[in-house]
Amino acid sequence: MKAFILAAGRGERMRPLTDHTPKPLLQVGGKPLIVWHLERLAAAGFREVVINHAHLGAQIEATLGHGEKWGLTIHYSPEPPGALETAGGIANALPLLSNAPFLVVNGDVFCDVDFSQFSRSTAGDQEKCPAAGARLLLVDNPPQHPAGDFSLAGEQVLAASSAQTLTYAGIGVFSPALFRNLATGQALKLRPLLDAAIAGRRLHGEHYAGRWVDVGTPQRLAELDHQLQSSA
Residue 11: its pLDDT value, please? Predict the structure, then answer.
């Protein structure tokens, strides 16, 4: 299975830090956010990673190279200024992701997810990801997003209800068929595709209770950096 790291966002809420540094290269615990992902992906058995970029993307390529440092092969999917949103970015990168389900990881989250549950074997890919659908990791709602995104009944992801809701962690396994009919080169959001998958009962998920941080503001970045430095 290949992994796709979303790294094209401008990081407006992170300004002024992102005026001169792309958000995935901001450091926590002594290394760039995206390097934490690369290390965990490599340790989990992934060998090919695709990274999209737009804002200051040349810095990402110059810093990470082709991935040899982590035993990975990194391919890049450049996007125009302003980027293509999540679904548009994935559709643009499909030629690099092959015809099998692939793992998607948001570049601006920090987690201790064991990615080996996804890379262990390709024989179970269909179980991990419904045909023309996706399997999402959902987490407890963080303070900045108390309403959540979805509800979960067993492994079936449902529209958010008045009962318990959970937040999409920015991590999931996706079928390429979910994006295949999208026009390339256009900015397209992911949520409409997920809502359609819910309607077709093609969206599965699981509740992840481990460490997860949406590193979306300078304050949360500083707090995470302090925690990691203190525990080193």
Answer: 80
CA 168 to chain centre: 10
Based on its alpha-carbon atoms, the radius of gyration of the chain, rounded to whole angstroms, reads 17
Model pLDDT, residue 140: 95
- The answer to whether the CB of 30 falls within 8 A of the CB of 75 is no
* Three-class DSSP category at 54: coil
- CA–CA separation, 87 and 80 (whole Å): 15
Contact 135, 150 (CB under 8 A): no
Say whether 231 sits in a helix, a strand or coil: helix
User: Measured between alpha carbons, how far is residue 86 from residues 4, 186, 190 in Å?
Assistant: 11, 11, 6
Task: Note the pLDDT of residue 232.
Answer: 67
List domains and CATH numbers for the chain: 3-231 (3.90.550.10)
Q: Is the pLDDT of residue 2 over 70?
A: yes
Residue carrying structure tokens 């790291």: 5
CB atoms within 10 A of CB 158: 16
Per-residue pLDDT reduced to its tens digit, 136-183: 999 999 999 999 999 999 999 999 986 789 999 999 999 999 998 998
Write out the two tokens for 149.
């995104």
pLDDT of residue 177: 95
pTM over 0.90: yes
Using H for helix, E for strand and C for coil, what is the string for 115-163? CHHHHCCCCCHHHHCCCCCEEEEEECCCCCCCCCCEEEECCEEEECCCC
Token representation of residue 19: 């005026």
Q: Report which DSSP code applies to 217.
A: S
